[in-house]
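Re: your question about Beta-xylosidase

S., sorry for the slow reply, the queue was backed up all week. Below is exactly what I fed in.
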Amino acid sequence: MKKKIFLYSFVALFITIKAHAQEHYSAYLFTYFTSGKGGEHIRFALSKDGYHFRALNKNQSVINSKDISATGGVRDPHILRGADGKTFYMVATDMNTEKYQWGPDSGMVLMRSADLVHWTSKVVNVPLAFKKFAGVNRVWAPQTIYDEQAGKYMLYWSMRFGNEADKIYYAYANKDFTGLETEPKQLFFKPDGGACIDGDIVHKDKKYYLFFKTEGSGAGIKIAVSDKLTSGYVLRDTYVQQTKDPVEGAGTFKLNNTNSYVLMYDMYTQGKYQFTRTNDLQHFTRIDDQVSMNFHPRHGTVIPITAKEAARLSAEWETPEDVLLSAGNKQIKSINITFNDAEKKLYLPVVPGTDLRSFDPAFVLFPGVTVSPSKPQNFSNGPVKYTVTIAGKKPDVFNVTAQETHNPALTGYYADPEVLYAEKTGKFYIYPTSDGFDGWSGNYFKTFSSPDLVNWKDEGKILDLPADVSWANRNAWAPCIIEKKMDGKYQYFYYFTGAQKIGVAVADDPAGPFKDSGKPLLAQLPEGVKGGQQIDPDVFADPISGKTYLYWGNSYMAVAELSADMLSIVPGTTKILTPTKTYNEGTYVFYRKGTYYFMWSENDTRDPNYTVRYGTSKSPTGPIEVSEHNTVIAKDEKAGIYGTGHNSVIQVPGTDDWFIVYHRFNYPKGITMGDAAGYNREVCIDKLDFNTDGTIKQVTPTHAGIKPVLLRSNK
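Result:
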């Protein structure tokens, strides 16, 4: 009986300890670097659930690379909790691409901390430390794992001699974590002789899973598995990333209190991260729609941390701005929040229909941080005072305003909007470029529907270049659409840019899905044109002649008549109409009261002075007359609105009411982003008015936008 009581007590104690251990970690720390100037420094972000991350220190560095590296830059930070549970180890590539481009890169930085705030560091230059490796010119993406059998910390990284393929090596760190005490040995190489980089080892169920990126042969992330940490890895010859875009920098972490793991990786050509979830490290499911970040990380790693550790990090690096900008209510237009520390003001724009009489901003609070009041407040009468308290810091009081705005009209980053009223459905539709991708590298199209030009519904993807188009898989830009009734049926012809060519896809519903014709409609410059791109199509049905025309061009404006089936150009009808020397792109044509209006954008879409201008004609094929005062819409510096351009126009059926749909830089951050503002744009709508002589009144861009349009059919 005593033995049974002892056994039961031991089991109960074990269960209690295990449960306590599972509850021990209640947050996550993400360490990463970023792209762009000044990006190659270590940054931290926190999360309570492993899905929603918020940057600390306003997304600025928490460790300055100049203080720890030989080059003045670091990349690929990997963080590890030590075997003792209280010491932390971090390693990073010693690399400064701003100063030295891509090499040679022969060093790594070893760091150690007892509190996640204060770090000691040491640079290890592999060729200098080991004569055998004097020919090494790449030492990339180091990581650390504790070898239980050896009782030491093992570093592993990819390394290259000369022009040979990259292989993954390992060595043991010395006791102080200030250098390598063993000569590097080869850990893994690709059997086909191709390169492999960015190793990440996960220990699960007595097996070691080595994630790595194939480099130079194939593309993506594969896994090799072994029963031993330092040898015997067998390749699983399948890619595990859940995208067709190039990826690198695999990072894996276990979700607290679950048996699930998250595999994340850097979609470096898209400027985005992708997150996947798995229980067996073999089958992975995308969870992008569940993940949010207020920063754009590059190759980083995540570890679980305690509430006490999270509070320590918040006290050191979180600011009232970080706290207030975390407002997570889904009715807030999160990318348009404005914060003014000097005036102690926060402005929260909300979507149409939000009840401001009882509204909770839903601030994300980490341990050691409080915000009061904590319950929903009445914002309908003006600002509400909120007090932010961060442990160890003086409380700050802010005036918080929540207000309904209609610009941007769409939630998220979109550009080059084409607007359509569909007779079939009695709704309006916007067809934009999917934006927010570095270098305009988006590869799919979506559409949005609305009964009133204010309340917009995301109808989802309507055309995915990699999946649906055989002749182009990149640069999905600037579409246009037209509704045609053929043989008693509505047909929708969707002209789009892919890989700097113009194609056409067809659907029998304005929300798609659309089927590509199978080949580009336009793939070469028009005869006599020596520069520019085949982009930015615009389709126009002439109400006078009954003919349909396609306009296109970048640095030139071309027009051609479309065939009766809308799938080809009528031979011999192409004509160059370039109206002015400042013409750049984004042609849009419409007809009103006997006049053909031609609109276009001048300057570059990355330029704050991106502006819409117009000319008129008596014919859809020109010539175009341009008056001295021909600005349609331009920036408004006082309102903080820049880069207004690439528009379309909509006439409300049965009326002479017109609206302009255009894109602008993201507000308020766009103007601070340099060239990146040109691919972080948002769609807006404002009223378009005419003078009595038919000339266009210059539009003042607004944040308020327009009021809902009531169609006669809905009255």
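The helical segments are 2-24, 65-68, 97-100, 126-129, 307-317, 320-324, 465-468. The domain at 414-714 is CATH 2.115.10.20 (Tachylectin-2; Chain A).

Happy to talk it through on Thursday.
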